[in-house]
Amino acid sequence: MAGFFQEFTGYRYADFSSKIDSVGVPKTASSTSSDSENYGTRIERKYLEKLFLTDAQVSKTINTYKKLLLQAGYRIVAEKKTEQKQYDEFFKEMGKVGMRYKLEQLLGKIIFDLSLYGMAYVERVYDTSGRYIVDLKPIDAKLMDYVRNTHNTIMTDREQNPLGYTMDCGYYSDGIGDIPPRGSKVTSGHIFLEPKRIACFILDPYGNGFEGMGKIEPAYKQITRKQKIEEAASNAIYNAADSLMYAIVGDNLRKPSEQLMNATLKTLQNWTTNRRAVFANPTQVGSMKVEQSPQVQELLKYLRNDQAIAAGMSLGLATGSGDNNKSTQNTERKDFNTQLNAMAREIATQFTSKILDELYEVNKYSCKAALVWNNVSVDDRTDMVGILKTLFDMNAITSREARLYAKNVLDLETDDEEWEEFIKHTERLPEMPNVSEDAPLAKKEKKEVLNSKDTKNEIAVKKNIKKSKDNYEEVRE
Q1: What range does the domain containing 209 cover?
Q2: How far apart are CA 278 and CA 264, in angstroms?
Q3: What is the reported pTM?
């Protein structure tokens, strides 16, 4: 076996540590010219933001993801409990720059931008010496991009990580920025930012992995079509809210003049305010019923359904007006729960690697930490209490696990020290004796008493049971 490892590794001893420590250089390309072509076909983020502001279904979709994920709850857990205070103090003190965002607001902004754009950005704010991270600030995602060369290809370093980012600040801004790398395309009105300053979050990456896709862009064309049809249908109804009125002037003996027809038309127009009218010549007044094409509603339903599918939810959940049966609704809710939990895990993983790991390395914390997200569900949180009880009764989870979940999800304010003391005390309680008629001990004793017909033995057994029960009650009190 030793010879096999010697031959396999090429070393005298099977030691892999040197190979692990040295990071190799990738031989494949990270970004190519074809990526720049795809970059030009993407929908500009300012148009996606406009949809959020003008389309009710888009707004509801983004806010649903944000509210459900934040409602589920989360926690930052250090590897060593004794060092948890380092991270708690950082996030307690954060929010001194920008809009004074706290942790929950920061996570809400990340969820919002990921859902809408597929990308989110957070600035790691350093102290004046540039040695320690002292704050975190969210950045408007529609202004950000990777630094690119003159061919619109993303510039990367030796390990194929982005060389930095650019921010579209306009000509009059308070942005400072860093010195851009040689060969980069940083045009007027843009600033360059070093990669150590920016934490870039990506949702549903594709292609080279540098770009992500949000919940709105795949259905952008369908949404714009829907808006145009809705506007046209609304205008048609507005212009013909009532039935169209017409008048036939004259008869087969009297041909109407142009002056007479104009007078009749004016009389019809005045009917909007005057319920009575007089015509100088024989006139027949009628109305034409206005009917909207049934294809309009069918097409709108089709477009709205496509929009909901792109967002990862059913039409009923997206609009609140689904007509499916209960079984189908349950399936749709389970599918949406899967979408929510997948997104929560993705955010937690990236927040851990791009925020918490950076704090550990830059600020020299004594141990690493991770962001842990609770289970996300569209179901009522009170329903989860019943599920927790069932799992606890089945011995599938401990009381400590059930309490931790309930405390985070239901926002319970509890005294941890008092609860720990209560648990220690209950663990010292003796077991309550089983004195039921079906208990094995009771049956055995009863059989012995009946066989021996010893009244004294029967009395002794009853006394022992009573004494054990009294001892239990005394200790419990």
Answers
A1: 43-216
A2: 9
A3: 0.70
* Contact between residue 182 and residue 189 where contact means Cβ atoms under 8 Å apart: no
- In this structure, are residues 366 and 325 in contact, taking their beta carbons and an 8 Å threshold? no
Quote the CA–CA distance of 22 and 18 in Å, as a whole number: 6
Q: Give me the residue label for tokens 């001990």.
A: 441
Shared domain check, 284 and 149: no
Cα dihedral sign for 404, 408, 414, 416? positive
Q: Is 216 helix (H, G, I), strand (E, B) or coil?
A: coil
Task: Express each pLDDT in 208-220 by its tens digit.
Answer: 889 999 999 999 9
Side-chain-side CA neighbours of residue 359 (13 Å):
24
Euclidean distance between CA atoms 163 and 157, whole angstroms: 6
Contact yes or no for 354/82 (Cβ under 8 A) = no
Other beta carbons within 10 Å of 137: 20
Instruction: Looking at the structure, tell me whether residues 62 and 186 fall in a common domain.
Output: yes
Domain end residue (candidates: 154, 181, 216): 216
Residue keyed to tokens 């929510």: 340
Residues 88-134 pLDDT 10s: 999 999 988 878 889 999 999 999 999 999 999 999 999 999 899 99
> Is residue 244 within 8 Å of 285, Cβ to Cβ?
no
Q: Name the amino acid, one letter, at 411.
A: D
What's 211's DSSP letter? B
Cα–Cα distance, 29 to 33 (Å, whole number): 11
> Any idea which residue has 């959020």 for tokens?
52
Give the closest residue to 88 by CA, choosing from 109, 110, 103: 103
